[in-house]
Amino acid sequence: MKFPKEGEFITIKSYKHDGSLHRTWRDTMVLKTTENALIGCNDHTLVIESDGRRWKTREPALVYFHKHYWFNIVTMIRQKGASYYCNMASPFLIDEEGAKYIDYDLDVKVFPDGEKRLLDVDEYEEHSKKWDYPDEIDLILKEHIKILVEWINEEKGPFSEGYVDLWYDRYKQLTGKK
Fold first, then answer.
1. Roughly how many angstroms between the first and final C-alpha of the chain, as a whole number?
2. Which residue ranges run through the membrane (predicted)?
3. Tens digits of residue pLDDT in 65-114
4. In which element (H, E) is residue 150 found?
5. CA pair distance 138, 121, nearest whole angstrom
6. Which of 23, 26, 54, 117 is catalytic?
7. Domains of the chain and CATH, by start
8. What would the pLDDT profile of 12-48 be if each residue is shown by its tens digit?
9. Which residues face 40 on adjacent strands?
């Protein structure tokens, strides 16, 4: 499967461990793809929940996926500064339907002031029992939370100083927005 090119739109689909569809983002603009990573932008993007509810994202957000990490990062661009919503999830894959990953419930939120919070621990424990997450998945996720926190603390990747300006400016260039 070929990777989408800069300026093309893709769909992003998240699934749960049992294979059920969790959430779909329509029309994410691709800003960069490499053999291992994808960076895109959602801007008032249609989101469809597994129960059929539909809503649109409120602000522009950069999305970052990597084939070697068990997390993806959504950078929400707001007036008070960027905030980050990091999903603990399987590495993504791309096929004819778009980018896909398995959402493993745990999330790390980073506020504009740098505060970090681990979210949805109860949901993770509930789903771990319900769908019998293998011990290996639990170990991988715990290790990748450590990697993610290291990225946050060291301002690597999407947490680096110039990331938002670079990629949001590229999005505005491609769309003609100011």
1. 34
2. none
3. 999 999 999 999 999 899 999 999 999 999 999 999 999 999 999 999 99
4. helix 135-154
5. 12
6. 23
7. 8-175 (2.40.380.10)
8. 999 999 999 999 999 999 999 999 999 999 999 999 9
9. 30, 63
